[in-house]
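Appendix B, example 12.
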Amino acid sequence: MTLQWLHFLNRGLGPSGWDSYLSLRSLQKAIITFALVIGAGPMAPATAAALEQRNWIAQTPPAGIGAPSPQTANPQQPEADRQLAYPPGTTKDILHYIFVIAGALVFLNLLKEISGHQADRSANASLAKESKKLKQLKIGYPEGMIFMEELRRLKLLESRLSPLGVDIIWSSFPSASTLLSALSKGDIDFCGGGGTASIFSQAAGHLFVRVAREKYPDLQGEAILVPEDSSIHSLPDLKGKKVAFDEGSSAHYVLIRALQIVGLSYGDIQPVPLPQSQALYHFKQGEVDAWVVWMPYAPTEMRRRYPGRSIADLFSILGDKAAAEVPTLYYCTPELASGYPRILKAILEEVNESGVSHNQTQLQEAEIRSKTEEVDSELMQSLRQRTLERAILPLDEPTLNSLQHQATILHQLKLVPEQINVHDGSFSLQTRQNWTY
C-alpha cells in the first residue's frame, strides 16, 4: 500500500520544471492528492487510476490543454498570460470527490467516537470492578508536599472513587523515608516524596514501585539555612561546621552536591542526621551551625515563620539541572501497580489535576500582585505555561538515569551499602499511559 501511494504521489505531483501549465494543474492535483491521503485510504490506487484515465495526473501536458498549438502559440506572449483550458466538467468532478471524501472523513470520525465511547465504558467497568475489590485506599504524603495537600483539600479522589465504594484514608508523615517504610509494610498504598529516599529504601530491601514524577519541582523547596547572626555566608564557610539534615532524604543528597561544587568533601563537615521536626528545635537552640531543609521549611511563604537565613537553595546549587537531578516522585505498593492498574491510573490523573489547580492558583495570585507591584515577566510566562501542561509525568529514562547517578554517589560515599539498579522493573514502572481525560 505504501509503495502504491508513493507511486501515485510521484506521478501526481510531477517534476518541478514544468511551465505555468503545471502551476495551476499542480494546485488542482495537490488538493485532490491531499484529500485522498487524508480520507481515501485503501481506495487510493483505484482512485488514482480513475484520475489518470481523465488525464488529471499525466506525466506530460495533453495536447490542447494548457499548451498552445503550433498554429496559435505566440512566442512573444508572456508565459503567465497564456490562456489555460480544462476538460469540461472538471470543477464538478473535483467537488464530487471532495464531497465523497468529506463524507468518508465524517464516517471515520463517527467510528472513532463510537470506539472511544466503548473504550470508556470498558475502562469504567474495570475501575468499578477494581474498586469493589479494593474497598479502601490509604494515601500518605510528607508534610508540605503541595500537590498531595491540594489533592486532599479538593477531595478529588473522594469524588472519583467514593461513589464506587472506596474509602480514602489520609496520613501525613515527617519524611519520604518514613513514607516508603510504611509503604513497604502495607500501612499505605500510595504516596509522594523525594527520589533520594527511594535509593536508601531500595538498598534496605523495602518493597515499592516508582510510578510517576513531577514535571516542575519547587527550585526553592530545598535550602541551607544558618542562624541570622551566623558567620557563615557561603557554602565554603561550612567547612568544619555541624550541619543538620534528614538522613536518606533529598536534603541529604543536596548537601553532598553543595559540598562537591565548592570543593569540599562529606568528611569536611560534621554531619548531624536529624528528622526535620527535631532539627528545628536544635537549630533554634543554636546546637547546629547549619540546617539543610526541604518543604515546608524552605524559603517560601510557609518558611517565613521559621528562624534563620538561606545561604543557598536548590537552584543556586544545581542550576538548570536541579529539576532533573533531584526529582519528586510518586510511589505505590507492588500490589496496587499489578492488581489495580485502573485505580492507579485514576489516582495519577487526580494528582495531576491537583497540580494543575495549584499552578492556576499561583498564576492568579501573581496576576493580582502585578496590579500593585512589578512581577518578573519571565516568571509570569512560566506560570502561564505551567497551567497549560501536565503537572506530573510518567517515569522516563532521564529521571531514572539521574536517580542512578545519585545511587552511585551515595554508594561511593558508603552511605548506601551496595550499588542498586533503579531501572529494575520491580521498583520502577515505566508506562506511556495517558493520564489526561
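The mean pLDDT is 80. The longest helix spans residues 90-134.
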